[in-house]
């Protein structure tokens, strides 16, 4: 880019120099050394001594002889003069039509315009964006300061990314083992959870250049431009040998294609996406280039992007739980003098805050402290900032909602977990959290099923009970009128399992050992009775679930309370509570 700039800057300079020389040349030739009679001039014409005549706007003519001498003579202002001269093979330079003062003015104007245009183009090239040269943010020099210590929480994501760092540091090692490292990684999760930060940290840890651009840079540009930008970006990265390329908002170019209606309007996006995929398949594994893309929703991405050899590693970056929030808060307080802050309390009050929102909270508090000329940041500043950050909601009301959501989700998840612990003890409950995922659930309970190639009837019934455990807990604790929409996903799964049992696996009474899907046109007549049988099955399992939870209400409450406090429980904590005598 610098080279280009240097080359372009010469164009106006050269134009200016050229114009000045041309003007000097003209005025030099218009100045004669001495004067001659007009008759002598006519003689010179007849003697064929003259090479050139300059007609000034003044009353004089300037005559240049073939021997190089120059003189002036009176201009007869005869209309035929020019013609006569030309007939005698004498060159005529008529400066009347040339008009020096105007010429100078217009040349200056011309030069200025040319310069301005070039400076403008130049500025744009170096600045935000030109047509194909996108401003690729290159952090190769300043990202050394960023590493995984700059990212608090997100331990699972960091661990997963550690492999990528190692690969970037030593691609040959992986090649020697014949291992295929991912070329593309997708970080997905709510906005502000630190996806960009993680990508920068990967580059920082591996000490390779970091190139970033956003998918939204490709929206509404001319067809072909986005693809060219992608190629430029990769060219730039490849010239560095190793690099991390970060594409934020990948969904802007990689969204699932809509139905048949999606047509020419998406040409640009398709071309850009294809260019990206082509570039990604274009570099070899040993090259040490990793593309990290970020999106809020993984499920909206085109499956072409997610295939092996493309973005085949998907890492969730979730909202921080209470202990992660405490770490993030303390990280952002590091460079701010503070006094007697109750970090645990701040973390507790900020459920569902993203890392970015926490950073914002601390920053607001620091601004308030600075405004008050307070030497230290105190709890009071944090409290004031808290109301500012939550502005738009009545503070109390919002706080109230947060608490209520947490309470509901805690019991719901505790219900799932407890039923799983009681009814499917072979499946490990490895994590319970009330921190929402981007998939829309308010929280989730992660169970790792025992490996098995088939599932038995009693297990399927127990699975349904685990799925119903969330809703059942809500009903037991909050009452029938207070059940929530939180069980939506659970109910889809319940319906699918029970339907398969009766219609496909030969586990029901209505069809016996017949498969509904094999009945062809006759399947319609069995539709309603099958649904009826499913409903009865699920209802009776639900009653059983409610009974079981009621019997174990103490345990349910114990798990839920621990969840409210810690927001996330790992396997050990879960089993400790479960096995603890009440
Ligand atoms: P995303 O790319 O997921 O939208 P960013 O990485 O841009 O989020 O995060 C924005 C800012 O929020 C970061 O620059 C950082 O200050 C803060 N932040 C977010 N998550 C974390 C975290 N886990 N640890 C520390 N700071 C964080
Ligand atoms: Zn649930």
UniProtKB/TrEMBL annotation:
<feature type="transmembrane region" description="Helical">
    <location>
        <begin position="7"/>
        <end position="28"/>
    </location>
</feature>
<comment type="similarity">
    <text>Belongs to the AAA ATPase family.</text>
</comment>
<dbReference type="GO" id="GO:0005524">
    <property type="term" value="F:ATP binding"/>
</dbReference>
<keyword id="KW-0067">ATP-binding</keyword>
<keyword id="KW-1003">Cell membrane</keyword>
<feature type="binding site">
    <location>
        <position position="412"/>
    </location>
    <ligand>
        <name>Zn(2+)</name>
    </ligand>
</feature>
<keyword id="KW-0472">Membrane</keyword>
<keyword id="KW-0862">Zinc</keyword>
<dbReference type="Pfam" id="PF00004">
    <property type="entry name" value="AAA"/>
</dbReference>
<dbReference type="InterPro" id="IPR037219">
    <property type="entry name" value="Peptidase_M41-like"/>
</dbReference>
<dbReference type="InterPro" id="IPR003960">
    <property type="entry name" value="ATPase_AAA_CS"/>
</dbReference>
<protein>
    <recommendedName>
        <fullName>ATP-dependent zinc metalloprotease FtsH</fullName>
        <ecNumber>3.4.24.-</ecNumber>
    </recommendedName>
</protein>
<dbReference type="InterPro" id="IPR005936">
    <property type="entry name" value="FtsH"/>
</dbReference>
<keyword id="KW-0378">Hydrolase</keyword>
<comment type="similarity">
    <text>In the C-terminal section; belongs to the peptidase M41 family.</text>
</comment>
<dbReference type="GO" id="GO:0004222">
    <property type="term" value="F:metalloendopeptidase activity"/>
</dbReference>
<dbReference type="InterPro" id="IPR000642">
    <property type="entry name" value="Peptidase_M41"/>
</dbReference>
<dbReference type="InterPro" id="IPR003593">
    <property type="entry name" value="AAA+_ATPase"/>
</dbReference>
<dbReference type="GO" id="GO:0005737">
    <property type="term" value="C:cytoplasm"/>
</dbReference>
<feature type="active site">
    <location>
        <position position="413"/>
    </location>
</feature>
<keyword id="KW-0479">Metal-binding</keyword>
<dbReference type="InterPro" id="IPR003959">
    <property type="entry name" value="ATPase_AAA_core"/>
</dbReference>
<dbReference type="GO" id="GO:0005886">
    <property type="term" value="C:plasma membrane"/>
</dbReference>
<keyword id="KW-0482">Metalloprotease</keyword>
<dbReference type="InterPro" id="IPR011546">
    <property type="entry name" value="Pept_M41_FtsH_extracell"/>
</dbReference>
<comment type="function">
    <text>Acts as a processive, ATP-dependent zinc metallopeptidase for both cytoplasmic and membrane proteins. Plays a role in the quality control of integral membrane proteins.</text>
</comment>
<feature type="binding site">
    <location>
        <position position="416"/>
    </location>
    <ligand>
        <name>Zn(2+)</name>
    </ligand>
</feature>
<dbReference type="GO" id="GO:0008270">
    <property type="term" value="F:zinc ion binding"/>
</dbReference>
<feature type="transmembrane region" description="Helical">
    <location>
        <begin position="103"/>
        <end position="121"/>
    </location>
</feature>
<keyword id="KW-0645">Protease</keyword>
<dbReference type="GO" id="GO:0004176">
    <property type="term" value="F:ATP-dependent peptidase activity"/>
</dbReference>
<dbReference type="Pfam" id="PF17862">
    <property type="entry name" value="AAA_lid_3"/>
</dbReference>
<feature type="binding site">
    <location>
        <begin position="189"/>
        <end position="196"/>
    </location>
    <ligand>
        <name>ATP</name>
    </ligand>
</feature>
<keyword id="KW-0812">Transmembrane</keyword>
<dbReference type="InterPro" id="IPR041569">
    <property type="entry name" value="AAA_lid_3"/>
</dbReference>
<keyword id="KW-0547">Nucleotide-binding</keyword>
<dbReference type="GO" id="GO:0006508">
    <property type="term" value="P:proteolysis"/>
</dbReference>
<dbReference type="Pfam" id="PF01434">
    <property type="entry name" value="Peptidase_M41"/>
</dbReference>
<dbReference type="InterPro" id="IPR027417">
    <property type="entry name" value="P-loop_NTPase"/>
</dbReference>
<feature type="binding site">
    <location>
        <position position="490"/>
    </location>
    <ligand>
        <name>Zn(2+)</name>
    </ligand>
</feature>
<dbReference type="Pfam" id="PF06480">
    <property type="entry name" value="FtsH_ext"/>
</dbReference>
<dbReference type="GO" id="GO:0016887">
    <property type="term" value="F:ATP hydrolysis activity"/>
</dbReference>
């Amino acid at each position: 880019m610098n080279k280009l700039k240097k080359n372009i800057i010469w164009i106006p300079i050269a134009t200016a120099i050229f114009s000045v020389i041309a003007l000097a040349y003209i005025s030099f030739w218009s100045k004669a050394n001495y004067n001659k009679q007009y008759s002598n001039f006519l003689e010179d014409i007849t003697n064929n001594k003259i090479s050139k005549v300059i007609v000034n706007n003044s009353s004089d003519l300037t005559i240049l002889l073939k021997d190089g001498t120059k003189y002036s003579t009176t201009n007869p202002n005869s209309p035929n003069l020019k013609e006569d001269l030309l007939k005698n093979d004498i060159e005529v330079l008529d400066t009347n039509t040339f008009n020096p003062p105007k010429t100078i003015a217009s040349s200056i104007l011309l030069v200025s315009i040319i310069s301005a245009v070039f400076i403008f183009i130049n500025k744009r090239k170096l600045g935000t964006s030109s047509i194909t040269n996108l401003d690729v943010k290159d952090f190769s020099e300043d990202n050394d300061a960023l590493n995984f210590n700059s990212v608090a929480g997100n331990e699972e994501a960091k661990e997963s990314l550690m492999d990528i760092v190692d690969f970037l540091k030593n691609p040959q090692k992986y090649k020697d083992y014949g291992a295929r490292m991912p070329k593309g990684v997708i970080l997905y999760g709510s906005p502000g959870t630190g996806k960009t930060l993680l990508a920068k940290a990967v580059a920082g840890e591996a000490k390779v250049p970091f190139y970033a651009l956003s998918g939204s840079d490709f929206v509404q540009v001319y067809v072909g431009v986005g693809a060219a930008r992608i190629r430029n970006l990769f060219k730039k990265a490849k010239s560095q040998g190793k690099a991390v390329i970060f594409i934020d908002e990948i969904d802007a170019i990689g969204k699932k294609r809509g139905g048949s209606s999606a047509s020419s309007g998406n040409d640009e996006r398709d071309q850009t996406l294809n260019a990206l995929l082509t570039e990604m398949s274009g570099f070899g594994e040993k090259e040490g280039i990793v593309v990290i893309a970020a999106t809020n929703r993984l499920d909206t991405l085109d499956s072409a992007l997610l295939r092996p050899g493309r973005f085949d590693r998907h890492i969730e970056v979730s909202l921080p739980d209470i202990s992660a929030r405490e770490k993030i808060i303390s990280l952002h307080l590091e460079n701010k003098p503070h006094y007697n802050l109750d970090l645990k309390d701040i973390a507790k009050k900020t459920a569902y805050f993203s890392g970015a929102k926490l950073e914002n909270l601390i920053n607001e508090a620091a601004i308030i402290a600075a405004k008050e000329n307070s030497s230290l940041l105190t709890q009071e500043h944090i409290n004031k900032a808290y109301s500012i950050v939550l502005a738009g909601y009545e503070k109390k009301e919002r706080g109230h909602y947060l608490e209520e959501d947490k309470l509901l989700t805690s019991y719901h998840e505790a219900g799932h977990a407890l039923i799983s612990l009681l009814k499917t003890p072979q499946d490990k409950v490895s994590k319970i959290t009330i921190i929402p995922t981007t998939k829309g659930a308010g929280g989730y309970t992660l169970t790792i099923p025992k490996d098995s190639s088939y599932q038995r009837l009693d297990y399927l019934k127990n699975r349904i009970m685990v799925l119903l455990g969330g809703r059942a807990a809500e009903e037991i604790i909050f009452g029938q009128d207070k059940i929530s929409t939180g069980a939506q996903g659970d109910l889809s799964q319940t319906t699918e399992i029970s339907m398969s049992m009766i219609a496909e696996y030969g586990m029901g009474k209505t069809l016996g050992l017949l498969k509904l899907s094999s009945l062809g046109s006759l399947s319609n007549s069995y539709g309603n009775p099958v649904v009826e049988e499913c409903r009865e099955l699920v209802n009776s399992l639900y009653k059983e679930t409610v009974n079981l939870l009621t019997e174990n209400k103490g345990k349910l409450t114990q798990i839920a309370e621990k969840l409210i406090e810690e927001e996330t429980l790992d396997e050990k904590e879960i089993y400790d509570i479960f096995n603890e005598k009440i």
